[in-house]
Structures are given as structure tokens and as C-alpha cells.
Amino acid sequence: MPPLDTTEDPAAIKLATQAEALYLINLLLLPGIGFILLLLMYKQHIKDGAALVRCHLKQTMNASIWAGILLVIVNGLILLLGSYSEPWTWVVLIIYFTSIHATLVLLGVVGLSKAMAGRHYHYPLIGNRCHEQ
Predict the structure, then answer these.
(1) Distance from C-alpha of 2 to C-alpha of 25, rounded to nearest angstrom
(2) In 3-state terms, what secondary structure has residue 128?
(3) How far apart are CA 36 and CA 27, in angstroms?
(4) Distance between CA atoms of 53 and 19, rounded to whole angstroms?
(5) 3-state secondary structure 87-123
(6) Do 8 and 104 contact (CB within 8 A), yes or no?
(7) What ranges do the domains of the chain cover?
């Protein structure tokens, strides 16, 4: 395992950690509000932030957008195939939350730990590699 990157500025580590925390807040505690706060942070720091901050901001915004798209797709399928009063609706929702949503949360926790360590991280399948500089 490579050594931790201790050359990162503590302020950059703090902002990267906040980005990952807001992503998790959006998924788990305050959907929508967490996304708006993350979006405001993104707009404020994406152009002039450190590479670590830009990396984590890009990853969390991309993952948040994917999470929203997947949620809309699941709701659309439920409405297209029936309604929320159907028994199979709960099967679809349970499968969604135990597989897709849980995976997005797990990726956020890994991203948060990487941010706290001052390391760049990209979300598998839905994230783009960050240019470490």
C-alpha cells in the first residue's frame, strides 16, 4: 500500500472531506438539501480549489447526479408497470435500496476516508479519473 500523501494542504483536506460528507448527507440524511449545499460548494471551489478538492468535488457531484437519475428511473419503472399500491413495488424498492443505494453509500464512505487521508479517489464505474497534481 502506498504511503499517505502528507503534502496536501490541511485546508484542501478539509474541503475534500466536506464534499464527501455532503454527498453522504444527500444520500442518507437530507436529500436535496445536501445536494444543494454540495452544488454551492462545487460552484465556489471547482475552478480555484486545490487538485484534491477539485477531484473530490467532481466525484461527489457526478455520483450525486447518478444517484438522482437512478432514483428517477426506479420511480418511473414503478409508475410505468403499476403503482405504489402493488405488492411487487416493495420488492423493487428493497432491491434498489439494498443493492444500488447501499453501493453508492459505500463508495461515499470510501471517498470520505480517502479525502480524510488527503488522497485522490474516483468512484468506480461512474467517476472519471482525477489528474493528480
Answers:
(1) 29
(2) coil
(3) 12
(4) 8
(5) HHHHHHHHHHHHHHHHHHHHHHHHHHHHHHCCCCCCC
(6) no
(7) 26-116
Q: What is the pLDDT along the chain (133 residues), one digit of tens a residue?
A: 444 555 679 999 999 999 999 999 999 999 999 999 999 999 999 998 899 999 999 999 999 999 999 999 988 888 888 787 888 888 888 888 899 999 999 999 999 999 999 999 998 877 677 765 4
Q: Which three cell numbers stand for residue 26?
A: 444527500
Residue 36 C-alpha cell reads as: 444543494
Rounded to two decimals, the pTM is 0.87
Grid coordinates of 73: 428511473
Q: What distance in Å separates the CA atoms of residue 87 and residue 4, rounded to the nearest whole number? A: 49
Grid coordinates representing 1 are 500500500
